[in-house]
Design goal:
This protein has helices at residues 27-38, 56-60, 74-84, 98-103, 105-123, 161-179, 213-222, 242-256, 278-288, 313-318, 327-344, 349-362; strands at residues 18-22, 42-47, 65-68, 88-91, 131-135, 193-199, 201-203, 226-229, 235-240, 265-268, 275-277, 293-296. It has 370 residues and is of the alpha/beta class.
Length: 370
Amino acid sequence: MENLDLEKLFGGTYKGRRVLITGHTGFKGSWLIYWLSKMGAAVFGLALEPPTNPNHFDLLNFVYKSYIQDINDKDSVQIILKEINPEIIFHLAAQPLVRLSYEEPYQTYLTNVMGTVNILEASKSLNNLKAIVVVTSDKCYENKEWVWGYRENEAMGGKDPYSSSKGCAELVTAAYRHSYFNPGSYGKDHQVLIASARAGNVIGGGDWAADRIVPDIIKATKENKEVILRYPGATRPWQHVLEPLSGYLALGCRLLEGKKEFAEGWNFGPNFENNVTVLELVKEAQKSWDKIKYDLDKNQHPHEAGYLMLDSSKATKLLQWEPVWNFVRTVEHTITWYKEFYEKGSVKTDNTLMNYIIDAQSKSIQWCLQ
C-alpha cells in the first residue's frame, strides 16, 4: 500500500485543484473530501453541522477549510462560493432520507430543489469555475418496479417527497445546463460544464443516519438488540460508498478536461448481483460480525419502492468506469469498519480506501492506472 501514489489517480487531474464539496459533513461527502485531500486537492466544504454523533466527518479529524452554512440561504451561499472560487463543485448537500421527507416535505423540497438552484445560481458568477457535478439519486426516476435497470433517458418522477425532490433537482440541473451552461456555447459564452450523477443504495463505514438499514444494524448490535426489518423483501442496488465516488471523480475529470460530451446525466450503480433484498444483506452482514441479530417488523410503514435498479452501461462504455467490489466484499468492508470502530476504537477509512484502490488496479480500471 505504501507504494501507491494517490496524486496520480484520475490522471493527476485533482492535484492542486480548488474543489468545493457541498454536504461534506454527511456520509458520502466526508468520504469524498477525504479522498480528494489524499490526491492533493485544495478542498473546501459547505454544509450544515454533522447530522449525527458519532459521525464520519469528525472522526476523520483532518484540516481543510470548512464553511458551516445552510445552502437555503441564497445570499450567504453566493458570498461563500465567491470567496472559495472553486474550479469544480461536487454538489451533494441534501435532505437524504425517504421517511423524513414524509414528515418534513417542505424542508425536503426547499433543500433538495431550491438548495440546488442556489448553488447553480451562485455558480454563474464564478470566474474560475470549470465544472459542476450535481449528485441526486437513483430514486429520481419514475419507478415502475421494472426488473431491468433504468437508463439515463428514462422519465424523472417519484411517489414520495424525497424521490420527487430528486427528480426535480435533475430537471433544475438540466434547465441550468441548457439555459446558462449550454455545451453548444462552451468556450464561447461560458467556461463551465455541468453534469448530474445518480447512484444506488450506498453503504459503508461511518454512516449513522436514521432509517438506513446498515446504521440500524449497527445501532442495534451496539446495544445487543435485534435490528427490526421494516421492508425485508425490498430489493436494493447495494454498493460501497467508494463506488459512486469513483464515478463522480471520473466524471469530474472529463468535465475539467473540457470534454463537453460528458455534460449530461450519468448512472453509477452496482453490478446486477448486488441487487439483493434487505434480508439477504443482513444475513451477509452476520458473517462479518456474529453479534448481529434481526427480527421482522409486522407494522405498516410509508411506501418505499420495492424494486429499483440502475443501468450503468453508459458509464462503463464511455467513462471506462465499473464497480470494483461485489456484494460480498461490499458488505464485508462495511461491517468490518464498524466492528473495528466499536471493538478496537479504530477508524479504518484510510485502510478501506487503499484496499479499494488496490482492488481497482487489479481489475485495470482506467481511473487508477499509473
